[in-house]
Amino acid sequence: MTPIILDGQSLTPERVMEVAVAHRKVALCGEAGERVRRCREMVEGLVADGKVVYGVSTGFGKFSDVHISPQDTAKLQINLIRSHACAVGNALPEPTVRALMLLRANALAKGYSGIRPVTLQLLIDCINHEVHPVVPEQGSLGASGDLAPLSHLALVLMGEGEAFYQGERLPGAEALARAGLEPIALQAKEGLALINGTQIMTSIGTLTYVKALRLAKIADAIASLTLESLRGIPEAFAEEVHLARPYPEQIGVAKNLRALLRGSRLTTRQGEIRVQDAYSLRCLPQVHGATRQVLAYAQDKLAIEINSATDNPLLFLEDGQVISGGNFHGQPIAFAMDFLKIGMSELANIAERRTERLVNPALSGGLPSFLSHDPGLASGLMITQYVSASLVSENKVLAHPASVDSIPSSANQEDHVSMGTTAARHAVQVVDNAAKVLAIELICAAEAAEFVGIDGLAPATRVLYAKLRALVPPVTEDRSTSGDIEKTAAALLSGEWLEAVEAVAGPLF
């Protein structure tokens, strides 16, 4: 497979996933490489001329007024990385680390940062040779860049820190050596160029967005199976209803539902069993569609951020300017991740309400209590709804916005920060919880479908039912379902079941 070419302008979330998860290789665009080379020459000229440039001939943060002599510019960068590498907590997962390496390389490829081509190439080589730095997940304020976590990435390029290579956690120098790579000695501006950016929050956010979009689409299919099992009324999804309130995402979800339910013999018409369904069924396009609006917002901001220069200062070749700015500030991604948390929390909230309708005999329209095959003696799927309720309650806490907090740092020089990385880390938890909530709904919906007759399922929902049954057998007698829920959630996040459903229903919005 040909490598993905980095030019600093055209990376997409889907391409990020290819590198992060499928381990696709990357290469630097020739034109971008030339710009990086010229920008580096500009840095070397500034050093030779003794110009005052933040982070090159000055200290950092509150130390920006401290002059650094030309002979100490390299030492300054090494000290920067060593002192800033103080992140804590669990190591970020391998896909996230691969994504952040890719995003940092893409930002540097824009040619505004002044890094040497050899240093950028080592970063790319580490991606391609699968040398994955150990990057602790906690410690970023989300402004001045993701300084602490990104410093652990830079340490490995220096032959320090730790990295995973071929499944082993090794000293950074040893990991590089085993991969046939040589560490670099940082020169002027390079340490700052490597860590002054938003790549931690953006890498986490990009991978989380892709998973969230998969869940949002498969949620339409799961809800369709639930609607069939409850003998619901799909007339609420009629096109004319949604054209009367023309949110594109609402219209798109209604179209999904019509495609997913096409051919069903279990759905009913208005007045046949009931006049109208409860909101958790009837308002699917409105609620799921609103979540899709949120995801569209997040996608738009991520698409910009992954192709942005986010360090400081920036060098502009066209007019020779060096400008100290604030592109490292993570506020746009902080807001996007907080918004994503809210949208996915609501996707889980309404799914839990549908699960309640499936297991509650007062709401299920004649299904056995808690879908038990021996009510009373066997509890059936009663407690799965408890678990679902617990997860959605936890999401409500996690959905509290991190972006409304700010704690000043660097002696109040850096007096407003975004907490965007915290928002992104919480978004991961919200999406993982939502996957489990949807897994519980699917397990219950499949069980309910067996009581009403799987022969009547629509072709698309029948595929989803079959995929689940290949993984999770019916609950004909009480057993632990923890493993069933976890396996189902993982399958939903992978996107494989979504592809199978789309092969029958057509591409979903």
Automatic annotation (TrEMBL):
It holds the Pfam family Lyase_aromatic. Belongs to the PAL/histidase family. One of its GO terms (molecular function) is histidine ammonia-lyase activity. It catalyses: L-histidine = trans-urocanate + NH4(+). SUPFAM superfamilies: L-aspartase-like (SSF48557). InterPro entries: Aromatic_Lyase, Fumarase/histidase_N, HutH, L-Aspartase-like, Phe/His_NH3-lyase_AS. It is found in: Cytoplasm. The keyword Membrane does not apply. Pathway: Amino-acid degradation; L-histidine degradation into L-glutamate; N-formimidoyl-L-glutamate from L-histidine: step 1/3. Contains an active site 4-methylidene-imidazol-5-one (MIO), which is formed autocatalytically by cyclization and dehydration of residues Ala-Ser-Gly. Its EC number is 4.3.1.3. It comes from Paenibacillus glycinis. This is Histidine ammonia-lyase. HAMAP family: His_ammonia_lyase. It comes from the Bacteria. The modification 2,3-didehydroalanine (Ser) is found at residue 144.
